[in-house]
Structure formats: C-alpha cells, structure tokens
Design goal:
This protein is mostly helical and 93 residues long. It has a single domain, classed as Arc Repressor Mutant, subunit A. It has helices at 3-33, 36-46, 52-59, 63-92. The radius of gyration is 19 Å and the shape is elongated. The two termini are 31 Å apart.
C-alpha cells in the first residue's frame, strides 16, 4: 500500500471514530432529556434487556405504562437524532 493510500485510510478511520463519538454523545444527550421514568424504562429495556413485565415490577406500575414510557422515550430519541443528523449534513456541506 502506498503512503498516500495509507494516509487516506487513516484519515477516514479517524473521521469515522469522530462521527461515532458524536453519535454516542447525541444519544447520551437524548437520554438526559428524558424524564427519570422514561430514562429508567428505556435503559432497562434497550440496554439491560429486561422485559416490559420486569420493568413494570421494578417501577411498580402497569405494563401499559411501561409501554407508554418506552414509546415516548423512543420518540424523543428519534427526534433528537433526526436533528443531530440534519445538523451533521448541513455541517458537511
């Protein structure tokens, strides 16, 4: 591999790592915007793989309440990441 090819690959790898870090930060920001109940339900479901029933038992609420909390947390995350991606596209232009 030529020196120029190597340099291009290193640049792309660095750029990829930076974008992945930015995305991770955007996810953390979105999670911080969630209410405490939304955050707990979301993290327990998506990161700890607990069932809705297990989460309901921990939170001492109904399973339908857990479903509502997770859905609203996911909508918040979606909106935040959509804004993040739109800003990233504008910055790349």
């Amino acid at each position: 591999m030529s020196g120029q090819s190597c340099c291009i690959l290193e640049h792309r790898e660095t750029e990829f790592r930076e974008r992945r870090f930015d995305l991770a930060q955007a996810i953390v920001q979105a999670i911080e915007l969630m209410s405490g109940k939304q955050r707990n339900a979301f993290i327990w479901k998506r990161y700890m793989n607990l069932s809705e029933q297990e989460i309901a038992e921990r939170m001492e609420c109904s399973r339908s309440e857990v479903d509502r909390l997770i859905a609203s947390a996911e909508r918040l995350l979606y909106r935040h990441l959509r804004e993040f991606s739109q800003a990233a596209v504008k910055a790349a232009d």
